Amino acid sequence: MNVLLADDDNAMRLYFTKFLEKRGFTVTPCSNGKDAWEEFQKSPFNLVLLDWNMPQMTGAELCERIKQNQKDSYTYVILITSRSDAEDIIQGLESGADDYITKPVVAAELNARITSALRVLDFEEKLKNKEKEVRLNCYKTLTQLAETRDHESEGHMTRVGQFCAMIAKKMGYDEKFCQDLEVFAPMHDIGKVGIPDGILHVPRELCSEEFQVIKMHTQIGWQILKDKEVFELAAEIAYTHHEHWDGNGYPRHLKGEAIPIAGRICAVADCYDSLRSVRSYRSKASHNQVMNWIKLSSGTVFDPKVVEAAVAIENDLKELFDKTYTIDVEDSPNRI
After folding, report:
1. Which residue among 2, 32, 250, 257 is the one 20 to 30 A from 217 at the CA level?
2. How far apart, in whole angstroms, are the C-alpha atoms of residue 41 and residue 66?
3. Sign of CA pseudo-dihedral 265, 271, 274, 277
4. Could you tell me the pLDDT band of residue 204, with boundaries at 50, 70 and 90?
5. Are 200 and 278 in contact (CB under 8 A)?
6. What is the dihedral of CA 215, 218, 224, 228, to 10 degrees?
7. What are the φ and ψ backbone dihedral angles of 28, each rounded to 5 degrees?
8. 127 or 91: whose pLDDT is higher?
9. pLDDT tens digit sequence for 230-274
10. What is the SS3 string spanning 132-201?
């Protein structure tokens, strides 16, 4: 675990650093509050030890700032102080400190305080993982609910999320963005819950009026998901995954990089899985047929960079699809 330490006393800073390193921590020592704040902004720490009296920014002030800027993980702050009056202790705790140590520091007490901090951090991590598990299950349930409206999808939405994550990773996007794509891209067709069965499941080529209704699923999906902080990316994908690079898509005729990257990636992933899947109105296409069509559509329907990434991992796309798609219906009416 990485620990941030701030103390303007050289001897104390060296003492704490050696003590923590012996316990296996990686320590980032700072001689004042300002430097410590800059380090925290670069790379947040789960455990922070702060001397109360420091130049440029006191430990209490820094603690308050850290607590106001906690991100995805909890930061446990221990104040180190020579102040032992009840009012001073209360002030330190009110600044957001989780614990305090009074000087002179006793090694046994410091060890016990650190151990206590680790218990809290471990519990926080377990809670976070449990919350994540519950949240992901809720997202999956929502996706599965939408997928029941399309009896022929056979895992389509889940695979699209996986394909999006694979393509984004190949394009060099960070792990969080790739994970978010895998979670939220499966909601790209959630708007189909608002499309009548008589149009959604018609086993023939749609007339122009019916196609206009089908196209509304992008706007319906956006309406369902918008203005909900956790679903921002899902709403963006639902709204933009049918936009085309050349501006001839729908619903807003966005063009080029005006289309969010998540929508551009989902467009390719959705196309690959849809064309390789059998439908009541057409038979499924082969991997090579689909990839050839995607390549031909680069620069018109699809972002060339997304296509380039998909081509680079096409064997992985094929492997995942072949492993997870089990419907075997080759002879169906073909409307393409």
Report:
1. 257
2. 9
3. negative
4. confident
5. no
6. -170
7. -110, 100
8. 127
9. 889 999 999 999 999 999 999 999 999 999 999 999 999 999 999
10. HHHHHHHHHHHHHHHHCCCCCCCCHHHHHHHHHHHHHHHCCCCHHHHHHHHHHHHHCCHHHHHCCHHHHC
Structure tokens at 37: 């704040």
Residues 6+ apart with CB under 8 A from 155: 324, 325
User: What mean pLDDT is reported for the chain?
Assistant: 86
> Identity (one letter) of the amino acid at 270?
D
**pLDDT tens digits, one per residue of 33-67:** 999 999 998 887 889 999 988 888 888 889 989 98
| Tokens matching residue 217 | 């699923």
CA-angle at 292, arms to 286 and 294, nearest 5°: 105
CB 242 within 8 A of CB 251: yes
**Residue partners of 27: CB distance under 8 A and separation at least 6:** 2, 3, 5, 16, 17, 20, 21
CA distance 12 to 214: 69
Omega before 29 within 30 of 0, i.e. cis = no
Rounded to whole angstroms, the Cα distance separating 262 from 253 reads 16
- For residue 59, which of 101, 19, 27 has the smallest C-alpha distance? 101
Largest alpha-carbon pair distance within the chain? 84
